[in-house]
Design a protein that fits this description.
The protein is of the alpha/beta class. It is about 30% helix and about 20% strand. The longest helix has about 40 residues.
Length: about 180
């Protein structure tokens, strides 16, 4: 009996070790998503992120890409994640994947005096969230696009309502 208990205890230790290793591995993946989420949320308000992008060339996620087209992918990402455009540029968000996405500005993370934007034509963050909750209004299906013209200089942060928790966030620097 003692041998059987020792054997079962050994199995329990092995199973626990495997479970912990699995958590560690997932933690690494989630850490990457957490980093993405922190890029699109409170840690970097405009100037902090802007200077990080200029000085932090070692991290690919901190670079600003000069383009006016952003792709929305099945990998739950805006590509590129950070773009830079001149004032008055129309930015096009193209859904190149097979699942729907939204483009929704964080209301408190756009330049002062800038016009709020969200796919579906909503004029506030709450209206965009409510619209998506009630019939997926603002959803951009496969093969379709959304455009916004940005006139006010500064940094705009935005996200995809159904995929924000997956790190689907982005930034636009208007110069």
């Amino acid at each position: 009996m003692a041998t059987r208990r020792t054997f079962i205890r050994g199995l329990a230790v092995t199973a626990t070790g495997t479970a912990i290793a699995g958590c560690s591995s997932s933690g690494g993946s989630n850490s990457g998503n957490g980093d993405s989420g922190s890029d699109g949320s409170a840690s970097g308000d405009g100037s902090s992120d802007g200077s990080g992008g200029d000085d932090g060339g070692s991290s690919g996620g901190s670079e600003w890409t000069q383009t006016s087209t952003v792709e929305m992918t099945d990998e739950l990402a805006f590509e590129p994640k950070k773009i830079q455009v001149e004032a008055g540029t129309t930015v096009t968000f193209e859904n190149v994947g097979s699942i729907g996405h939204t483009v929704t500005a964080y209301e408190d993370k756009i330049p002062d005096g800038a016009t709020y934007f969200a796919s579906g034509g909503f004029d506030s963050l709450q209206a965009a969230k409510d619209g998506y909750s009630n019939g997926q209004k603002g959803n951009i299906p496969k093969g379709e696009s959304y455009e916004v013209t940005l006139e006010t200089t500064g940094t705009y942060e935005y996200y995809c309502i159904p995929h924000e928790m997956n790190g689907m966030v982005g930034q636009i620097k208007v110069v």
